[in-house]
Amino acid sequence: MVSPDQSPLQTTMAKPSFPPRNKHTSLLTDIFLFVGGSITALLLIWSFWSFFSPTQIQNFPSPSSFSQPNIKPQDNNDPPNPTFYDDPNLSYSIEKPIKNWDEKRRIWLSHHPSFATGVRERILVVTGSQPSACRNPIGDHLLLRFFKNKVDYCRIHGYDIFYNNALFHPKMTTFWAKLPVVRSAMIAHPESEWIWWVDSDAAFTDMEFKLPLDRYQNHNLIVHGWAHLVYDVKSWVSLNAGIFLIRNCQWSMDFINVWASMGPQTPDFDKWSEIQRSTLPDKLFPKSDDQSGLVYLLLKGKDTWANKIYLESEFYFEGYWEEIVGTLDNITAKYVEIERGVRGLRRRHAEIVSESYAEMREPYLKDAGNGKGSWRRPFITHFTGCQPCSGNHNQRYSAKSCWNGMHKVLNFADNQVLRSYGLKRCDLLDSSLTPLPFDSWAG
What was the pLDDT predicted at 414? Predict the structure, then answer.
């Protein structure tokens, strides 16, 4: 038994005895002791220097150590449970209708619960261009810039985007080509509540603005248009079919089938051309087109279709470029004036939190108005009639006005993106960049 004053190690070990050292052994021992002591001293000095040095390497916590209680990761695994994808009779072809789509989509979401969270606000942006190279020498460059603009907007707001440059139906070309693409996108993305088609010649010009989805909760198709021009004037330009938001549901599947039945892939194409011309007195094109077809369905299908179609006219869901381009300098000046007085809006920040700065800016825009005559940034600018890829612009405009307008609008939008990277363009017709000083407004 060990006494309380002793440890176990102290009671069991006897004092060791060593043989006497000779002269050579003593010398070698002294040398080893000297070298060992020197190394120990150097290690001690290095340890203290590393501890107090301002350039020491920081040990950052791993991503898993951060708590993110409000973020639910999406599970990209596909469970073996059967879904509509396993049905050999389901077709992506626009010529073969799909039935019970709402139920099919509901079952898929039930097997993928992580995607069911937030599904009502999930948007897929779809756009595209022709399969071949542009005839206009600068057309491909312009389309690349238009696509970059859409990618920027989607990245800032967390939207997915699909770009297509193939014909999903060989006979559905030009403006009809988008319908089979949109329908296929609905099947390929059951996790998305909305499919947002945006023409290749349209640019987001307010990178902060988001669609007011709450306003559309009882509707399935949203287009820019004016009810009085549709129902009273019966004008084929009472709306624009180049940009639309459509809900991923059975109603939309049925509507696209009816809309596409007026297209060039059907034997009734010539008949529909005559019907559209007789219904819409100001229709310019002799052949059936998608925009005239949409107006016709609003006029003739009020109970079936019109009550689920929202004609958005309160903001630039898509704005005519010729009335927008000349206003950009004044709009920039107004936003600079706001930022001069609100230091919080001038604060540098990560791009991923840009939406919170949009919310901070909104109270200062309450008197800006919307649409024509407003000094709020136009949401989307649409270069209808300019034809950037072919170059065959409407003869009402000069080629210079179209191309300069595109550069100015795209640079105006890009300035809003570049501020997160510390840069801006001082001249909207000059692509050269200037560093953005600290605490500076980004006009």
Answer: 97
Taking residues 232-245, what's their average pLDDT? 97
Mean pLDDT of 318-333: 96
d(CA 197, CA 292): 17
Is the CB of residue 324 less than 8 Å from the CB of residue 310? no
Domains of the chain, by residue range, sit at 90-312, 321-435
The percentage of residues in the chain with a pLDDT greater than 90, rounded to a whole number, is 78
Is 259 a residue whose pLDDT tops 80? yes
Task: Determine the Cα–Cα distance for residues 182 and 186; give it in Å rounded to an integer.
Answer: 6
Q: What is the Cα–Cα distance from 416 to 410, expressed in whole angstroms?
A: 10
Q: Decide if pLDDT at 411 tops 90.
A: yes
Which of the 8 DSSP states describes residue 134?
Answer: P
Closest alpha carbon to 430 in 409, 403, 407: 407
- The matching CATH number, chosen from 1.10.1740, 1.10.10, 3.90.550, 3.40.50, for 90-312 is 3.90.550
Q: How far is CA 110 from CA 65, 107, 247, in A?
A: 30, 5, 19
Query: What DSSP element (H or E) covers 240?
Result: strand 239-247
Question: Which class for 72: exposed (0-12), middle (13-18), buried (19 or more C-beta within 10 A)?
Answer: exposed
Q: How many CB atoms lie within 10 A of CB 76?
A: 8
Burial degree of 317 (CB within 10 A; 0-12, 13-18, 19+): buried
Hey, what are 86's tokens?
Answer: 């396993």
**What does the DSSP assignment read for 163-222?**
EE-S-SSTT--GGGGHHHHHHHHHHH-TT-SEEEEE-TTEEE--SS----GGGGTT-SEE
Question: What does the alpha-carbon distance between residue 168 and residue 187 come to, in Å, rounded to a whole number?
Answer: 14
Give the N- to C-terminal CA distance of the chain in Å, as an integer. Answer: 86
R_g of the chain, CA atoms, integer Å: 33
Distance CA 386, CA 404 (A): 11
**186-205 burial by CB neighbour count: b if 16+ within 10 A, else e?**
bbebbbbbbbbbbbbbbbbb
- The SS3 call for residue 73 is coil
Collect all residues with Cβ–Cβ distance below 8 Å to 290 and sequence separation of at least 6.
Answer: 175, 176, 178, 179, 241, 259, 262, 263
Separation of alpha carbons 105 and 174, rounded Å: 30
Hey, how many other C-beta atoms are within 10 angstroms of the C-beta on 117? Answer: 11
